[in-house]
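User: Predict the structure for this protein chain, please.
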Amino acid sequence: MWTQVTQISGVMKKFMDAHPQGVHMICYSQGGLICRGVLESLGSHNVHNFISLSSPQGGMYGVPNMVKPFVPNISSKYIYRVFYTPRGQNVSIANYWYDPYHLDLFKQPSLKVFLAQLNNQAPNPQGNAFKNNFLKIKNLIMIGGPDDGVITPWQSSHFGSFDEKGKIKEMEEQEYFVKDSFGLKTLANRGALQKYIIPGVKHTHWPHNQNVFKTYMEKWLD
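Assistant: Here is the predicted structure, written as structure tokens:
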């Protein structure tokens, strides 16, 4: 994921420099995490509104509904044994695999798990800079819904995750929100967080759904 962030940062920086009045970001699925990596690591960004469209901001834990028929023997219970290893971290999804039963491994400094660094849940010498950079945005717009079928749990699109009892832990209950580790609580306090829950939209349909764009996204692009 950091490789992708580095590559895309260069492209985005050129676009930002060409539009000094400021830009907006619309980032879909895994791209929402890549964009967040750009925002946190690029101190010179001029992003106004960041629209996170069905993106696993709270991490992934579980096999997406759409692939279960093809991989019935894959168990999210044991995959951490592969994902939370140096070799496993070469796989993108492993970089944001959020196993509530093994958060000690998720936060393990030597692994440098991408999402743990973004959340400042693991030691990060750039932690303060990441937070300050993220807080340069004016608004964070989070869009997701219960019929997504890929983001697991779907509440991850709003920084939710499973807890150790298999129940949903909402954004406001997350450790990184309570501690304001990367600025999420600050954004909430200044009224800069917008959450939209939209039923009836499958994961692959979000970028093409005109109602989603017209009703929930277009107004943030002025």
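The first strand starts at residue 23 and ends at 28.
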